[in-house]
Zinc finger C3HC4 RING-type domain-containing protein (Postia placenta MAD-698-R-SB12), 103 residues
Amino acid sequence: MISHDVGSAAAHIANPCGHTICGECGFDWIARNKRAPTCAICRTKLIRAAPLIPNIAMDNTIAKHVGALAASGCVDWQPTGAKHKEWAQRRECVLDRLSVWGS
């Protein structure tokens, strides 16, 4: 999986190859390669109508991991901590971009 860090923002699957990519990274990659979008991992040509599909299973796994980091006492991953706030903000940004993308 390609991502900025452990707090991957809104995981997505590259369509059709199936690689999992952080939504933020995936949308940035596609924006740089608009003419012929490819998978950031294997360079397979993506389906233009739906280049990225939300990976709900991975997204839930990451959310559980973020929760476990908070439960372990890691202050930065508490709901008011810097890393948690950044992760939540990046995730919201990706979800907003996805809603615009689908319009």
Observations:
- The CA atoms of residues 46 and 87 lie 26 Å apart.
- The chain has a mean pLDDT of 85.
